[in-house]
Amino acid sequence: MGGAPAGPAGTGKTETTKDLGKAIGMMVYVFNCSEQMDFRSCGNIYKGLAQTGAWGCFDEFNRITVEVLSVVATQVKSVLDSIKAKKKTCVLLGDEVNLISTVGMFITMNPGYAGRAELPENLKALFRPCAMVVPDFELICEINLIAEGFQSARILARKFITLYSLCKELLSKQDHYDWGLRAIKSLLVVAGSLKRSDRNRPEDQVLMRALRDFNTPKIVTEDTSIFMGLIGDLFPALDVPRKRNLDFEKTVRQAALDLKLQPEDNFILKVVQLVELLEVRHSVFIIGLAGTGKSEVWKTLYKAYSNMKLKPYFNDIEPKAVTNDELFGVISATTREWVD
């Protein structure tokens, strides 16, 4: 039987499966499931897993539509029945394929999210359920800080998690706020790189700078005073200046003037914050009300990069003018290949 860990986001469902595979020397492939997966694409994955004997971890499995899940159940059952009967082959999508008995299938689920299907009973019976609870963030934070080279990791981890739990409770509820494990992990990586770039600075100052400078951009105006107050309470009498690149700020000012804009300090700061975020994030949302200069921020950065001869490139897409499939890609019905 495969395992079916279920629990809220950031509880380590996928990581636990990967760690189990690592511990017993199994190759684990992770597949992100979506509504576009049909029984053929699932069947092709099962064929590959059966022939290699590797494990497959199907992330967010209950995003697949119910009609597809009931067919998937028969495919999984075919593999499991063949293993029980100690056969060397099994039948998938009408083809007889070789079967290596070490094959394992794991599914992870986020119960109760919008757009998630309830698993059919015949599928539930094929996987061993496993409930996951929210882990001890403080311990995870402490271990990560030690890995990043911090000496006083225990005290700093306590301060870090206290700040994030207070932010969750005291700040307004915004769609783009995230105080979960993934946000903690990415900020710890930033703190580690700051520490390595400035080895002589005390550790509490390094962490305070990371927490302040990489959270401030996403905090809405009415929450800023609360957030800065929390930072001040947790790191009393610490006033660490921002890490500034004055030459770059000068270039941004010139770029703003080239675009016939007023190079106000707040606007220049937003452009600099965008650069800082792009260094640690794969994608960045620029959020704000109409007329707050969202487009001008990235256009100014584009102009600054052009002035610096860095050859930047942008592509303007109007999401209302293209379909979801054009925007995100789709599995072609004829070739079963991904098209984008």
Report on the architecture of this protein.
This protein is 50% helix and 11% strand. The chain is mainly alpha-helical. It folds into three domains: 2-131, Rossmann fold (3-Layer(aba) Sandwich), CATH 3.40.50; 137-234, Helicase, Ruva Protein, domain 3 (Orthogonal Bundle); 244-339, P-loop containing nucleotide triphosphate hydrolases (Rossmann fold, 3-Layer(aba) Sandwich), CATH 3.40.50.300. The strands form four sheets. It has a three-stranded parallel β-sheet with strand order 2-3-6, with helices on both faces. Strands 1-7 form a two-stranded parallel ribbon. The chain has a two-stranded antiparallel sheet with strand order 4-5. The chain is globular, with a radius of gyration of 25 Å. It starts with a strand and ends with a strand. The mean pLDDT is 89. InterPro entries: AAA_6 (IPR035699), DHC (IPR026983), Dynein_AAA1S (IPR043157), P-loop_NTPase (IPR027417). This is P-loop containing nucleoside triphosphate hydrolase. GO terms for molecular function: ATP binding; dynein intermediate chain binding; dynein light intermediate chain binding; hydrolase activity. Belongs to the dynein heavy chain family. Residues 1-295 form the Dynein heavy chain hydrolytic ATP-binding dynein motor region domain.
Number of domains: 3
Architecture of the largest domain, according to CATH?
Answer: 3-Layer(aba) Sandwich
Helix content: 40-55%
**What Rg do the Cα atoms give?**
25 Å
Stated plainly, the CATH topology of the largest domain is called Rossmann fold
Number of helices: 13
Distance between the termini: 35 Å
Poorly predicted residue ranges:
none
Q: How much is the average pLDDT? A: 89
Q: Major sheet: order of its strands?
A: 2-3-6
CATH class of the largest domain: Alpha Beta
Strand-pairing-aware structural class = mainly alpha
CATH superfamily of the largest domain: P-loop containing nucleotide triphosphate hydrolases
Shape: globular
Number of DSSP-assigned strands: 9
Q: Order of SSEs, N→C?
A: EHEHEHEEEHEHHHHHHHHHEE
